[in-house]
Amino acid sequence: MGHVLAPYRSILTRPGASAFAFSGLLARVPMAMFNISFILMVQIEYGSYEMAGRVAAIGILCWAFQTVPTSRLADRIGQRAAMIPLATLHVIGAVIGVWAAVNGEPEWVLWVAVILASFQGPLGSLTRARWSHMLDSDEDIHTAFALEGALDEVLFISGPALATILATTVWPGAGIVVSTTAMILGLTVLLSQTSTQPPPRNDAGSASLGLRIPPSIVAAAVLSLGIGTMFGSIDISFVAFAEEAGHKGWSGLALGVVAFGSFTGGLLYGTRHWRTPLWKRLIIGCAILTVGMIALAFSVNMLMLAIVGFFAGIAIAPTLTNCDTVVQRVVNRDQITEGMGWLRIGQGVGVSVGAWVGGYLVDASDAQAGLMLSAGAAIVMLGIALITAPIIRRGTERPGPLQALPDAPPPSMHAGDGWIDGPPVPPNT
């Protein structure tokens, strides 16, 4: 065990490294807790899954369109200068949201709250950028991103469970209070460490994709929209399923199990050098995910939901990795952030649609209807993968040995450069 942990000890003993690593972990608690906490709070206070889904959809949609601008802002003017005003907006939104929900204010006030809170900034990339700035060797950087990935998984596995326990047993707004407090404390410590902060850089001269988006990235973005729709209804459906089963507090645990499945799949997928062409792996991943989502829709109790959710989750991280690899192979390095941004926008729009429609279906019918939406979205996603396979194949295959075409790392292990946070829903790990 000591031999396994030695590389981590080596990088964490660098001056300031352990402090920014763990304060950064605390700062990004909202990525795992805020969305599910807001959904639970609105559903409990207003008694409507449709309304909870609508409010969550607005927040995630706004989040999707702020990802690239805020990431570039942090790079251009520095983390401290960018994150203080962005974090302030998030806190104001969280406070307004809790106040509005507990006082039964009109829904439009909740919309204002989640729109403000969506401008949280690139919480997932702050520490990764610091590691890139601090470390020199590829081996050390790989170790650092592996550590960051493991810490992210801890958040996404435990965050939903904690949010659900707080909302259902303590107070409906407790999850948001804990999430926001953790972010404030984490950012306070992180941003005070100016010695490890990367210097601001001016990327104004770098080439931009603009509207000249390569067809394969368009295809991957449409595919991400289908994936997002599938994810979007999961939060709502799991909470409703657990409530119908008489165990509402278990919904977060079930979501954590799905996240653990994704973590396991990403870990196994990333350890192999795949000779199968990317476009084929994309289809295979979508097919496995589709089978898992269909099986999930026929769950009859919480135990089956969790077990099937784990196995369905195994295909999540590899499928997201494949989509990211499409971008990595078709654009220049200085365009990766922009290319990834199109995928996250597609995914964010999908999550919004899934949350909104999923909430409506749960209210109009039951949790099974929401799970059926996830299954339907997965079937559509597989269809899109099959239709767009020739486009992706043309864009990603190159002459020469396959070894010249590396894969992107799993979503939770991207480098500081080109990192774009994923939509804040537990399955997206």
Q: Could you explain how this protein is built, in words?
A:
- This protein is mostly helical.
- It has one domain: MFS general substrate transporter like domains (Growth Hormone, Chain: A), CATH 1.20.1250.
- Helix content is 75%, strand content 0%.
- The protein is built from 16 helices and no strands.
- Helix 8 packs antiparallel against helix 11 and helix 10 packs parallel to helix 15.
- About 1% of the residues have low confidence.
Helix residue percentage? over 70%
Radius of gyration, taken over Cα atoms and rounded to an integer in Å? 20 Å
Based on the coordinates given, report the CATH architecture.
Up-down Bundle
SS summary, helix count: 16
The CATH topology name reads Growth Hormone, Chain: A
Looking at this structure, what is the CATH superfamily? MFS general substrate transporter like domains
How many β-strands, per DSSP? Answer: 0
Net shape: globular
Oligomer: single chain
**Top-tier CATH class:** Mainly Alpha
Biggest pleated-sheet summary: none
Domain tally: 1
The end-to-end span amounts to 26 Å
Strand content: under 5%
Low-confidence stretches: 400-404
Average pLDDT, to the nearest integer? 84
From N to C, what is the helix and strand string?
HHHHHHHHHHHHHHHH
Structural class: mainly alpha
Write out key terms for the chains shown.
429 residues; mainly alpha; Growth Hormone, Chain: A
